[in-house]
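so i finally got all the pieces together for this one. its three components total, 1237 residues if u count the protein bits. some of the lines might not be protein, just check the labels. i wanna see the whole assembly predicted at once instead of chain by chain like last time, that was a mess tbh
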Amino acid sequence: MNRHPRARWALAAALAIVLSACNQYAPDTIFGAHSQFGHDVDQLTRRLLYMGIAVFVLVETALIFAVFKFRARPGAPPAVQTHGNATLEITWTIIPAVILAFIAVPSIQTIFRTQSEPPADALQIEVIGHQWWWEFKYPQYNFTTANELYVESGRPVAFALKTQDVLHSFWIPQLSGKRDLISNRTNHLWFTPDSIGAYNGFCAEFCGASHANMRFKVFAVSAAQFAEYVAHQQTGPVYPVPVDSATAVKTTAAKGAKPAPAPAPAPALTAAMTNTGTWPLDQLPKHVIPATPLPPGSVDTVAGDAARGAAFFKTAACIGCHTVKGVSFGVIGPNLTHIGSRTTIASGLYPNDHAHLVAWIKNAPAMKPGSQMMALGMGAAAAGGYTDQQIADIAAYLSALK
Amino acid sequence: MATIVAPPSVARHQARYETGIWSWLATTDHKRIGKLYLYTSLLWFFVGGLEALLIRTQLWGPNGRFVTAETYNQLFTMHGTTMVFLVIMPFSAAFFNFLIPLQIGARDVAFPRLNAFSYWVFLLGGVFMNVSWLLHAAPDAGWFGYAPLTTKAYAPGINIDFWVLGLQILGLSSLAAAFNFITTIINLRAPGMDFMKMPVFTWMSFVTQFLLALSFPIITVAVTFLMLDRFYGTNFYTIAAGADPLLWQHLFWLFGHPEVYILILPAFGLVSEVLPIFSRKPLFGYSVMVYSAMVIAFLGFGVWAHHMFAVGMGRVADSAFAIMTMLIGIPTGVKIFNWIGTLWGGRLRFTTAMKFAIALIALFTIGGISGVMHSSPPSDLQQTDSYFIVAHFHYVLFGGSMMGLFAGLYFYYPKITGRLMSEKIGTVHFWMTFIGMNLTFFPMHFLGLNGMPRRTWTYDANQGWEMSNQMATVGAYLLGAATLLFAYNWFSSMKKGPVAGNDPWGAATLEWSIPSPPPDYNFAVIPTVTSRTPLWGADPGPGPVTYPAPAGNAAPPKTAAQLHITMPTATIKPLIAALGLGVMFTGLIWHKNMPVMLAGAAIFVASLYNWLLTPLEPEHH
Amino acid sequence: MATAALADAHAGEHHYTSTGLNSNKIAIWAFIGSECFFFASLISTYLIYKGKSVVGPFPHEAWTNPATGKVMPAILNIPVTSMSTFVLLMSSLFMVLAHAAVVRGDRKYSKIWLLATALAGATFLGFQAFEFTSFVHEGLGLTTNLFGSTFFVLTGFHGAHVTAGVLWLVTLLFIDYKRGLGPRDAINVDICALYWHFVDVVWIAIFALVYLIR
């Protein structure tokens, strides 16, 4: 090696590339997966990886050894004129076959284990893929949500996977392998999350313009929190804000605007309405907080009025595509009943806050290429033409729909 | 083809086709056709490489906005389609054309005009598909074009029309070439050259031709269904009519898996030519190399659904395809060992060609190992559709096919041009390529295992993916620079390189017994062959002491006429027939313009008839 | 001297082949092998989609259109198609006879049998045309349902192959009239025959799998 400075450099470079993997922050890694399925696959993958590395070391060592030992140099012996060696051929056919058997058997066992029937007490979730967002239905609990998935740690969850349009693929690397969403079919996937955590989900089958933007967030929470979440989701939209009859709060209109319409009678306050059961915003790990920048020129600071927004919503274009339970019944876009308590909007693409909501409503296609939601702001060619104030109001209303 | 009638006008046209541009447009000489393939592939290599650089620039950092999502989807689709169909396959075809007749001791291929036709149709297909860029409507649904995304309902624009028709055109080119080379290898071998005396490159190519002939009809059918759906409203992929979206996937991968062996076997063949020469000993395990290629080709038709492990085929199907896929790793691995066996005990000379050949062994091993990792379905459910797969196939296609092709290009440059490439520049090119390739694609293994999906226009920050992406982008630019250097070496050596002579390397097979470049008739006298290594005796000896070996001052070879050798006539008919096809397909994509389509079909049929009824060679005595 | 020797050497070379077979014949076999996979893909698709059409008409059973209430009977006509199948099969016999006539240099019968083959092929095509147009008339088009798409594309490609074969035969016939086809040309007739028989065998598969098997 000392006689070959170039070889030392090469080795150093190779090691650098390989070791760049170590000590890396990798929040979506497939290793250390947080479910039984994930652990099964993890073990299998590690076995494959270690065997692969062993073969790599053997083969490359033999190659490098041969390259150095048999290089032509003054005084080197002439080449040995071998044509082949039957014993060697048989040996190096059988040994790989044996190694492969050590891979095949656990592979097939894991196939059967991971594709077995889910337990009867599994949480059932119906996943419907759309270009480019995720619809999640909880048939056991009778509610529908979108782009944010809550599961219960320690309880098996069984997914029925469907698509409304083209092929998609449902992938939460930290929890399990992926399964495609195939038109005209229902695919199945189940696993048992074994810890509390927040994870990223991706679409993993190219599905068109915003395939890269079709993300979702997954929260594995405790049984108690899951029960809270379910109870909350089952309620109708929490707007108007439910209040105790004793302490009524007047909604105030912005200066100079029309007086707010008479508020609807406030529903009776229940715990389910106030406890969203969602992951506390201040405890979101950074890998699930989207950092997608706003398109240039979309910063907006107009404050909105939720009451005005609620009234306007009922006649706005929104109702053609979105459902807010009891208010609107569109099924083309995500269910917005509890959008205010989601951590992201636009299918995991942007943080859920006023500025992003406003920018989204104003010009969704600029925020997400190919989006089927038309631009609703002023100057938009589509049916929009809503003023900044109108949009800010809708956004305020949506933010209030916790 | 059919020598039935001999029109007397043939001889008159010949003079026009001897020199200048006509000598290229009307050529039926396999060596010229090989060069045409070579230069066209090199051009597409730069186009596909530019597409890659644009992709990597967009992916340098998270939330990149260097290109729009729509443009990105066109870039990655065209990058894949270009590299597979317009670079690796035709580079291999350049070698099939140039080399096979020389290696088997023939004057030309069995059907020289069909050979020219294959090239012109290939050129047409590449141009046709890339014209879409001018309309900013390049295909954008991936090189694999899954239905129903590619149906009119979800891809209403003209993008996929270009893709569908371009593939049909390219398929015709490959099929015609396959029939040609199958016949050539079976029927035009020199006396004494039985199959088991053929050079290994010819063997690997022979197996490849069968893969081409049998797999391309399947994608022709898949693409025809899509074409009919898009242009004429049939229901093959119409979900609402009850169609199965998996039909496309099955048909595509029934083609697609044999296709990857089509992409690698010729490179394996080139490496099998280079290693023995610069080890000064024969290829280790010739028979095993031949039989393993046949086993790979046969099994290759039985593993296609390993591209579909995430689709939900069920436990039995998953298991069956897993086992078949693992099995096919065995004959492939055996080849690696035989190449190491070739080096073992040799006296190794590290010319640039040899460096690339050894690099294939090293890098294809990595790609093969990741391939075996994909063969286990449960593990594959984490790997598939992630960057781990992107890493795998770039290791086998760049680290495998391209390295092998570069080895062949350096090795056969003297035979093609009569000069030698600069070994100094070649060495720099090699190291830049080797380092660039690993820098670009090794980090992608980590990206995949760390959860980054593929075919994504952008990715978010805070996922831990930045560093690997940056390394990959730097590596890609290094590869771009390396390839520019290669092109410089190629073209400058034609004027400045040392004269090569017949055999600068001390090589073993028939092509090195004739002048460089060979005269149009190849061999003055067709040799009779008695061994696999006709130019080596019992022992090849130490070979030239320095590379390049100084060439003697050879007298210019005699002409065909002087030697009373009748050569196939040059003719423009294959080009006209290809143009007719071009007109026909242009009519179809341009609003299904029936008059134009019929005109194109008429040109094609008329020139085909004319060609078939004209003898290949002028009648003599 | 040397030139004469070279000329002699080249005279032998000119027609030398490794197998003793005509190159065109090897090429047509390679082509036929490829075509097997082509038709296998078309036939497989037909079989995969068999019974999966959402609306009728269907091949072997009647269907009532829920919108109009109209009953559409099973659309395939087995007796008529059996006749066209018979005609195509007979054409293979004529082809064999044509080749035999050319081999023995029989100028009269080479023309008769080539013409017979071409006419039989054309008759088959006529039956196909009749069948296609009556299907369209009865409500089954290329785009009607999965059956329409798969049926017309499969049989349409086969018909296109028959058409190419008929054109080939007519060309041979024309040459036979112009300068005569002698034993030297038998190889070309042989190659045409190989293609023709292949197209016939494909039809047997289609007839069995599409028409006969339910």
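Residues 1-25+569-621 of chain B form one domain.
Chain B touches chain C through 52 residues (CB under 8 Å).
anyway lmk what u think
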